[in-house]
Amino acid sequence: MQTAHSDLDRSVHERILADAIVDVATELRLADPNEFFLMIRGDQAANIADLVTSSSELFFKSGALKYALSAGCDLRWDSTPTVRLDMEFRHAAVTVFFRLTIGRTRAAVEVLDVFCEGDELPGGLEESERLCAAIQDARLK
Question: What DSSP character marks residue 127?
């Protein structure tokens, strides 16, 4: 199994993943930020996982997109709440660990690590192509 090194440019993977999960992020954004805050502060990982699962089940095959059991929330008087969810995409021998940040009007993706089974070099064009293929195959038609 190959792993991408931390010094590689992740922007291509982030763009691919962000485009793929825009619908999921939109569904998650419909949740009440205060409820998110209470679930995160109350260590209610199962509830957060259920919310992520129900938001992704319309768009991805079961188990392809999961909550990775870590979350954070920024709650300030002068701005809207921001929720950070560590997530995992796993399908077709490709695994991506990433952080999804959700605000009132925007969402962002930060890729933390990419794992591909096989002999290709990490960070290469083949890795991006495999990620695209895995996402396409994991999407519900």
Answer: H
CA distance 66 to 90: 8
Angstrom distances, CA of residue 66 to CA of 76, 118, 122, 125: 28, 23, 23, 25
pLDDT value at position 8? 62
Look at the alpha carbons of 27, 85, 141, 13 in this order and tell me if their dihedral is positive or negative: positive
Q: How do residues 62-115 score in pLDDT, each as one tens digit?
A: 999 999 999 999 988 888 889 999 999 999 999 999 999 998 888 999 999 999
Q: Taking a C-beta distance cutoff of 8 angstroms, is the pair 24, 65 a contact?
A: yes
Query: How far apart (Å, rounded) are the C-alpha atoms in residues 38 and 84?
Result: 13
3-state secondary structure of 36: helix
Specify the DSSP element, H or E, that contains 47: helix 45-56
Task: Enter the pTM of the model.
Answer: 0.88
- Residue 118 per-residue DSSP state: S
- Give the Cα separation of 48 and 52 in Å (integer): 6
Domain ranges in the chain are 2-138
pLDDT band at 119 (very low <50, low <70, confident <90, very high): low
